[in-house]
Write the structure tokens for this entry.
Amino acid sequence: MTKKMLLVVAIMLIAVSALSAQTPAQAPAAGGTNWVFVGACIGMALASGLCGLGQGKAVASAVEGMARNPGAAKAIQLAMLIGLAFIESLALYEIVIVFKLTS
């Protein structure tokens, strides 16, 4: 699990450096493919899929915690909702990035 997490972090760092490059945008040649749009779509698909997995794991863990300790259900539910909001914000930020890159 640790190696997978390090791989994901390394890929994210590489992607950040590529997205922050200060090169002027160029229109694709006649009949060419707009690779920025393709890359943005792949990034959106990955972000959405991983957000769904993260939300599922967060809800499953919260429900398990509420089942084990019903007295702490309110606190667990509040923490879960805040966590879900942060997870969902990743997908919303990705939409903004896609629109900014493709416009």
